[in-house]
């Protein structure tokens, strides 16, 4: 952001305090930035709860913090918090889709870097029933200590996403027409997991791969 000279800054401040006149019956509308297909606008948030938990249980919150830096790469920062957890995700949005560069665990002081980044979502035009994508990545984890980073472990993973179809789904936040996505992950020890995601364009994940369902969204 370019630095404003002091006179201009004072002028803007005075203009903001000045009374504004509008014509009779004129409606003043504030412009809002449209939410992207893969939502990552600064300041928006989602509130989640495990699918099997009662509604009065403590919630999880995912929010978009804005631009950040992960290693040498520019990224968008997301903060996930709740129930004693705090994690910062770093994602890159571009012509390739949505790439997860890595994340930082604030409680355990752990940093995980995916090499290469995990492709969480393809270019939006490709996200259709039947589409398949995936790849292989190494999760490089290390402790972030005042004395310096300490290597923890490297885990190789193979991942495969498949859009199973489109379906009307109901979660506490409402009823949505969602793309149902299957995610299969295999690590270098042979451990396999299968998870399901419900994604709604311009809304985000109304069910995450961890089984969290949307309670509320802040946009």
Question: Roughly what percent helix?
Answer: under 10%
How do the strands of the widest beta sheet line up side by side?
A: 11-10-9-8-7-6-5-4-3-2-1-12
User: In angstroms, what is the radius of gyration?
Assistant: 21 Å
CATH level 1 class label:
Mainly Beta
Q: How does this model look, in words?
A:
This protein is mostly beta strands. The protein has a single domain (34-217), classed as YmcC-like fold (Beta Barrel). The chain has 1 helix and 12 strands. The protein is globular and about 50 Å long. Mean pLDDT is 87; it is low at 1-30.
Features:
219 residues; YmcC-like fold; 1 helix; globular; twelve-stranded antiparallel sheet; mainly beta; disordered N terminus
Short description:
The chain has one helix at residues 6-17, and strands spanning 45-50, 60-70, 73-82, 85-94, 97-105, 110-121, 132-145, 148-171, 174-187, 192-200, 204-207, 212-217.
Write the layout of secondary structure elements.
Elements: H1 6-17, E1 45-50, E2 60-70, E3 73-82, E4 85-94, E5 97-105, E6 110-121, E7 132-145, E8 148-171, E9 174-187, E10 192-200, E11 204-207, E12 212-217
Antiparallel strand pairs: 1-2, 1-12, 2-3, 3-4, 4-5, 5-6, 6-7, 7-8, 8-9, 9-10, 10-11
């Amino acid at each position: 952001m370019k630095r404003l000279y002091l006179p201009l800054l004072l002028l803007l401040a005075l203009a903001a305090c000045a009374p504004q006149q509008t014509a009779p019956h004129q409606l003043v509308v504030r412009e809002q930035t449209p939410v992207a297909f893969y939502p990552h606008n600064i300041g928006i948030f989602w509130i989640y709860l495990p699918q099997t938990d009662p509604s009065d249980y403590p919630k999880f919150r995912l929010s978009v913090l804005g631009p950040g830096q992960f290693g040498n790469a520019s990224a968008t920062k997301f903060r996930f918090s709740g129930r004693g957890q705090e994690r910062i995700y770093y994602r890159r949005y571009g012509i390739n889709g949505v790439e997860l560069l890595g994340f930082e665990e604030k409680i355990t002081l752990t940093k995980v870097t995916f090499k290469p980044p995990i492709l969480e979502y393809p270019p939006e035009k490709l996200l259709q029933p039947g589409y398949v994508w995936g790849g292989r990545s190494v999760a490089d984890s290390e402790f972030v200590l005042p004395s310096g980073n300490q290597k923890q472990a490297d885990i190789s993973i193979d991942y495969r996403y498949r859009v199973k179809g489109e379906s009307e789904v109901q979660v506490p936040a409402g009823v949505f027409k969602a793309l149902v996505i299957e995610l299969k992950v295999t690590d270098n020890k042979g451990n396999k997991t299968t998870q399901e995601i419900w994604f709604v364009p311009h809304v985000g994940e109304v069910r995450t791969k961890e089984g969290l369902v949307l309670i509320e969204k802040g946009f």
